């Protein structure tokens, strides 16, 4: 690219001074500007291939980008005004008053520069037309052309870029790698931007372990990993986080997921202290539908907890989406079990009793949902190592949960009964997902209608999206009934927030219920007591 820059026979110091005078001048000379990018002028050519004129006017080699916006066009309000003394006349007549704008959110760490085409005659990146009103992420060493793909005007240098080289090239070509969102035993999660659609996504990076307890990890088996990838991408449900893409490299698996605007259910509970019972019912119904769908596809989640339940928006009534399902397929069964058993607050007793030998069934998800229901309704944990009377392991194995009458007195009897049926130690007596949906507490017609309306709108929105995309023309038809709305795969349609967290090995703190008068956990007449349901 060095040959494409203006080479002035003049003094280099003069060029730098001119650049700073024209583009970086401030009223406080001691101020050191934060330069986030540079636009290098492409070389002058007499062949007419390039846009710059031969001129005696001293031109800087590059322009520093300091402000969050840079505009180019004929109007005098633009940052860079196209003038006939530096640009060829036959080009100027095709330049719009505002031809393009480059924006960068300087308040967001490692956010990309985004260029938007405002012109009638086109703005081109590396020879590809953006299109009026369209945007794309501007990457390091991108060439910007105006009015025609051959009229190259700038070479963009990204001075904040530092993550692109840390992923395989096939990923960096499609996604701009931004900041870290979360990190846990199951991998690291980064915020990424689709360069063409300018949409935000979460990318989970799972490093491959060559050996697990002396045995080869199946992540090194391409056939097996592709099978798991296809399963994850085929899942279609409005309450399941969609897997956009999966990239497999020799040392890691990169899973690109949709990014949720509403954050985690955990954060919603801690912010409010607890959730109103009707809101709990609205959100919980969606969780049950999501898990029921996973089970129908032969997938047991096994790590359900409020951190793995994400909300689509900040609104009170929003779509719930389950994430981090099937991670054991990517991190290895042994590593996955160690992660889960390290924080067993939501684990079913049969998982603990089996010591990670996988001698349990999908009923474990019902137990975990019961713990989530408990936390939503009263805002504290039913089992905790902070309850010193019995060890956490024994609390779960015996089903002795902390029951505070003062917290539960305003909860309906039917909600209490459902919770008890879910936190039943004996698997054969534990309520099933189908029975949960048919339980009296769940038979709220208004909640059912509002839930199905929301899920139907989501399905319809994605159907409209897919009919506009030729790449997804072979997708299955949407099947909507009053219980489950199957979801078509979304592909990069949401520009959502960064509130995403990965499989976290150390549990976030939920309130545990303490009472200074309680010394004996068997004292059922006290305000707080431990109850069991076998």
Automatic annotation (TrEMBL):
Q: Which residues cross the membrane?
A: none
Instruction: Please report the organism this UniProt entry assigns to the protein.
Output: Vanessa tameamea
Q: Where is this region: Disordered?
A: 1-23, 514-534
Protein name as annotated: Ovarian-specific serine/threonine-protein kinase Lok
Pfam families xref list: FHA, Pkinase
Q: Which GO terms describe its molecular function?
A: ATP binding; protein kinase activity
Q: Which SUPFAM superfamilies match?
A: Protein kinase-like (PK-like), SMAD/FHA domain
For bias kind Polar residues, which ranges apply? 519-534
Respond yes or no to whether keyword GTP-binding is given for this record: no
Signal sequence annotation: none
